[in-house]
Specification:
alpha+beta; 10 helices; 5 strands; rod-shaped
């Protein structure tokens, strides 16, 4: 749509070499020199005597309008057309003085001022035609038709070229925007698909675990019932299996922390310690600071870290004891689990020893782990449990430290940030 040229920007950044303003100024100077110089060529139909001072001023003014053809296309178009039309009516020129007008017509059409470009083109051509008709004494009708027809073709071409240039630039901008949008949506789609795949795996794992643990719970319950029915002592390990499977089933069936804000898992870390004791791991719990409500994600992460750490102690640390320390700071929850055993999480031995083949790392509180061959340092790797802990802590913006303790054993310490004033919702 055409707009008022008075609303165009009146200020612009300083011109630098090679900028459009410098280029347009150079073009205007060259056009002015060519138009003025053409009148000085011997044999020119319009010499200096016919052009006069006013004629040269009109030529220079029409050419100078090219400087503003980008920043103010309508103003440049009107000024150039007025100067060149006045020049045509004054000295009956040839076709060359129409060149500045055609350039500004192109610029106006390319800038979206199609109505202005078409209107000024028609006005200029009409003025030239009237000027030629008034001078039929020196021109034949054929010469007038040929001259005006040639100008009409050039002006139509200038208008069409301007519109095509504008559409091409718009197409390129849209192509760039589509490319940027495609890049952005590709990343979003990749993240969404990764999330959907994780959700699918989690659902399948949930169903599989629920089925397997329910069978374990039923079988353990039957074994406990039969032992009591026969008047036999129920093994502590069997009772621990029954309790652990019942707790696992309860956790698998209850909603997540966001859906069940009333479930404070950090308060149940003591239950994890008691369960480890029943499985034969001498474990202690120390809580320092002032316990308070935690954000659901921090609460769940602390519980899972202690749960996984105690599980690793029971599975891989041999005849070891464990200590759990939960410390509440102003903006951080620190969870530290230490043991004095000899194995690394994931079954890899600690301190260069490995359990004897055929003997499990832990067969009760009174069975010591037996050792034999040494293990090279490059064979020591963190298991999946530590990877899961690290992912939980990283997702919350915290820090996880794992490794052998100064006096042997293994230490896991997680520092979980707790926003001040934020608690479990």
């Amino acid at each position: 749509m055409d707009g008022d040229h008075g609303r165009q920007a009146s200020t612009s950044p300083p011109a630098s070499p090679g900028s459009p303003v410098i280029v347009d100024a150079a073009i205007a100077a060259v056009v002015a020199v060519l138009l003025a110089g053409g009148t000085l060529i011997p044999g020119s139909p319009n010499g200096p005597a016919q052009v006069g001072v006013v004629g040269y001023l009109l030529l220079v003014g029409g050419a100078a309008a090219l400087v503003a053809r980008r920043s103010a296309p309508v103003t440049a178009l009107v000024v150039s057309a007025a100067c060149m039309l006045a020049y045509a009516l004054r000295v009956q020129p040839e076709i060359a003085p129409a060149f500045p007008v055609m350039v500004t017509v192109y610029s106006a059409a390319a800038g979206g001022r199609r109505v202005w470009a078409a209107s000024v083109s028609a006005a200029y051509l009409g003025g030239v035609l009237l000027s030629d008709l008034s001078d039929l004494g020196t021109r034949t009708p054929r010469e007038v038709v040929e001259r005006v027809g040639l100008l009409v073709g050039w002006f139509v071409a200038a208008n069409v070229a301007g519109v095509v240039s504008r559409q091409r630039r718009a197409y390129l901008r849209q192509a760039e925007q589509r490319a940027v949008e495609a890049e952005r949506t590709r990343e979003e789609v990749a993240r969404r698909r990764a999330g959907e795949e994780r959700l699918r795996i989690a659902r399948e794992l949930h169903d599989s675990l629920t089925h397997s643990i329910s069978i374990i719970k039923v079988q353990a319950g039957v074994a406990v019932h039969l032992a009591r029915k026969r008047g036999e002592d129920v093994p502590a390990a069997l009772l621990a299996i029954q309790d652990a499977s019942a707790d696992a089933m309860r956790e698998l069936r209850e909603p997540g922390p966001d859906d069940a804000p009333g479930i404070a898992r950090a308060d149940r870390i003591g239950e994890l310690v008691e369960r480890a004791r029943s499985a034969g791991v001498p474990a202690t719990l120390a809580v320092t600071g002032t316990p308070r409500a935690l954000p659901p994600e921090v609460d769940l992460a602390a519980y899972r870290i202690v749960q996984e750490a105690l599980t690793n102690v029971a599975r891989h640390a041999g005849n070891a004891s464990a200590s759990v320390h939960v410390r509440y700071l102003a903006d951080t929850l620190v969870v530290r689990v230490e043991d004095d055993g000899g194995g690394l999480p994931g079954g890899t031995p600690r301190h260069g020893v490995t359990p004897r083949q055929g003997v499990t790392p832990r067969q009760g509180a009174g069975v010591a782990s037996e050792t034999a061959t040494a293990v090279r340092p490059e064979a020591v790797r963190a298991g999946v449990g530590l990877t899961g802990m690290r992912e939980r802590v990283s997702a919350l913006g915290g820090r996880l430290q794992t490794g052998p303790g100064p006096d042997g054993g293994f230490t896991i310490q997680a520092e979980l940030p707790v926003p001040v004033g934020e608690g479990a919702a």
